[in-house]
Amino acid sequence: MNAVELHEVCKTYGDTAVLNGVSLVARKGSVIAIIGRSGSGKSTMLRCVNGLETIQSGRIDVAGHRIGDGRTNLRMLRQKVGIVFQGYNLFPHYDVLNNVTLALRLVKKISRTEAEEIAARVLGQVGLAEKLRARPSELSGGQQQRVAIARSLAMAPEIMLFDEVTSALDPELTGEVLKVLADLAGSGMTMLLVTHEMAFAQNIATEVVFMHGGKIWESGPPSQLFANPQTAELRKFISQ
Amino acid sequence: MTYVLQFGDIERFLPLVWQGAIITLQLTAAAIIGGFAVGLVSAVGRGSKWSVLRVPAAIYVEVTRNTPLLVQIFFAFFALPSLGLRLTPLEAAFFALIWNNGAYMTEILRAGLVSVHRSQLEAGQCLGMSWLQVFVYVQLPTAIANVYPAMVGQFMIIFLNSSVASTIGVEDLMGAAGYIQSETLRAFEIYLVTAAAYVSLGFVIRGIFAALAPDNPFKRIVCRWVHALSAAGSSPHPSRSDV
Ligand SMILES: Nc1ncnc2c1ncn2[C@@H]1O[C@H](COP(=O)(O)OP(=O)(O)OP(=O)(O)O)[C@@H](O)[C@H]1O
Ligand SMILES: [Mg+2]
């Protein structure tokens, strides 16, 4: 079964075409790593998948919702599709626990007690069970990013999108976040992740997608794609 | 030149000072709460994409901030009756102070609202929150935290400026002082007492807002206790979602 399916998606900002007919299928439980140079449209594609950007043509089916026909219930969709960005975007005036429980209570209408149980579980999952009462400003970048992941996971999404979640971190903090991602991939979560960590992509991805100029230039299983690139653009990208 | 202070003459008028202080506090509380509410609505209007909301809000702010409070209070008391709106001095003072503070709060809250980065709002949206929920639970608390010192500064200004109400006959602290001075001719003593009263009240108001500050660690501890107690009280039954 397909969790995400993009069909000939086109996206423009004014006159600039950013996505030029992107088609992509993510089966349930697959982990798709998206690579490509800066400006190739990776973030834009991810943002289209949870309806943060409108598309000009094509369609996207995600978790049983269709984007592109103008009738999508985005709030329902976003409860099933979590997204985490490079700059964690935690709510600065709430502590860790409230960052995680806020949407559970407001969106899912779950009681405070129940929400706090869920929060304790997902924060344990990312290794931050003892930081419930810290404010975001009192945490390291890696810890903040793990809270952001927990906040998304608390909503029990079917699909998780990650946009360069380790790019803002010092090398020594990258590992702790990659470990959380690897655990999540192991648990069977469907994941689309934009990453610059090639070794990581090679290890956990079921499929790697190389984007170039707003198109999917090349894709395939990581072993094949990295060992035997078919296009000059991908060869050049890998050799950098 | 020496002047011998004689507080004896004004002593029997002290209850009037006390009553005046209460009215000053009422005017201040109304100006703060009402001005905040007005400022919030008008700040949202000012940032709206619809000019039917943006333009009136801008006119309100510009007209108010470019006229003296004294003119506004005279307008409320002496000019509004021509439009058929007859206010008592106290009502006119409430009206003018809320009106005036609302304009300044608009500018402060507006600055706070735009200081919240778009990515914060997006984070809320991505968790499935509605626009109203994102505004109330994400944007507004961060906005207030970011401009809190400016907000409290403006509250202190409106507290001191509430003394203008005495010019239309309100018996606030300043009004009481004027009356006592005309009765006793002890200007130095009564204005010394009045100044001390403003200083003390200002100190208390500042203290209250320091306690309410978003980054006050003591407040976080108290909130945690309250949550713990309410959770303990309702634990046998699943509590309803009270956010
Ligand atoms: N809001 C916007 N308005 C106009 N152009 C935009 C906007 N957002 C992105 N773009 C353009 O779209 C193109 C693709 O951007 P996108 O952020 O998707 O790239 P990316 O592959 O994620 O790059 P990076 O690796 O640097 O994050 C870029 O050329 C960018 O300038
Ligand atoms: Mg990007």
UniProtKB/TrEMBL annotation, chain A:
<protein>
    <submittedName>
        <fullName>Amino acid ABC transporter ATP-binding protein (PAAT family)</fullName>
    </submittedName>
</protein>
<keyword id="KW-0472">Membrane</keyword>
<dbReference type="GO" id="GO:0016887">
    <property type="term" value="F:ATP hydrolysis activity"/>
</dbReference>
<dbReference type="InterPro" id="IPR030679">
    <property type="entry name" value="ABC_ATPase_HisP-typ"/>
</dbReference>
<keyword id="KW-0029">Amino-acid transport</keyword>
<dbReference type="InterPro" id="IPR050086">
    <property type="entry name" value="MetN_ABC_transporter-like"/>
</dbReference>
<keyword id="KW-0813">Transport</keyword>
<keyword id="KW-0067">ATP-binding</keyword>
<dbReference type="InterPro" id="IPR017871">
    <property type="entry name" value="ABC_transporter-like_CS"/>
</dbReference>
<dbReference type="Pfam" id="PF00005">
    <property type="entry name" value="ABC_tran"/>
</dbReference>
<dbReference type="InterPro" id="IPR027417">
    <property type="entry name" value="P-loop_NTPase"/>
</dbReference>
<dbReference type="InterPro" id="IPR003439">
    <property type="entry name" value="ABC_transporter-like_ATP-bd"/>
</dbReference>
<keyword id="KW-0547">Nucleotide-binding</keyword>
<comment type="similarity">
    <text>Belongs to the ABC transporter superfamily.</text>
</comment>
<dbReference type="GO" id="GO:0005524">
    <property type="term" value="F:ATP binding"/>
</dbReference>
<dbReference type="GO" id="GO:0015424">
    <property type="term" value="F:ABC-type amino acid transporter activity"/>
</dbReference>
<keyword id="KW-1003">Cell membrane</keyword>
<dbReference type="InterPro" id="IPR003593">
    <property type="entry name" value="AAA+_ATPase"/>
</dbReference>
<feature type="domain" description="ABC transporter">
    <location>
        <begin position="4"/>
        <end position="238"/>
    </location>
</feature>
<dbReference type="GO" id="GO:0005886">
    <property type="term" value="C:plasma membrane"/>
</dbReference>
Automatic annotation (TrEMBL), chain B:
<dbReference type="GO" id="GO:0043190">
    <property type="term" value="C:ATP-binding cassette (ABC) transporter complex"/>
</dbReference>
<feature type="transmembrane region" description="Helical">
    <location>
        <begin position="134"/>
        <end position="160"/>
    </location>
</feature>
<dbReference type="InterPro" id="IPR043429">
    <property type="entry name" value="ArtM/GltK/GlnP/TcyL/YhdX-like"/>
</dbReference>
<dbReference type="InterPro" id="IPR010065">
    <property type="entry name" value="AA_ABC_transptr_permease_3TM"/>
</dbReference>
<dbReference type="GO" id="GO:0006865">
    <property type="term" value="P:amino acid transport"/>
</dbReference>
<dbReference type="InterPro" id="IPR035906">
    <property type="entry name" value="MetI-like_sf"/>
</dbReference>
<feature type="transmembrane region" description="Helical">
    <location>
        <begin position="57"/>
        <end position="80"/>
    </location>
</feature>
<dbReference type="GO" id="GO:0022857">
    <property type="term" value="F:transmembrane transporter activity"/>
</dbReference>
<keyword id="KW-0813">Transport</keyword>
<feature type="domain" description="ABC transmembrane type-1">
    <location>
        <begin position="21"/>
        <end position="209"/>
    </location>
</feature>
<dbReference type="Pfam" id="PF00528">
    <property type="entry name" value="BPD_transp_1"/>
</dbReference>
<keyword id="KW-1003">Cell membrane</keyword>
<keyword id="KW-0472">Membrane</keyword>
<dbReference type="InterPro" id="IPR000515">
    <property type="entry name" value="MetI-like"/>
</dbReference>
<comment type="similarity">
    <text>Belongs to the binding-protein-dependent transport system permease family. HisMQ subfamily.</text>
</comment>
<keyword id="KW-0812">Transmembrane</keyword>
<feature type="transmembrane region" description="Helical">
    <location>
        <begin position="190"/>
        <end position="212"/>
    </location>
</feature>
<protein>
    <submittedName>
        <fullName>Amino acid ABC transporter membrane protein 1 (PAAT family)</fullName>
    </submittedName>
</protein>
<keyword id="KW-1133">Transmembrane helix</keyword>
<feature type="transmembrane region" description="Helical">
    <location>
        <begin position="20"/>
        <end position="45"/>
    </location>
</feature>
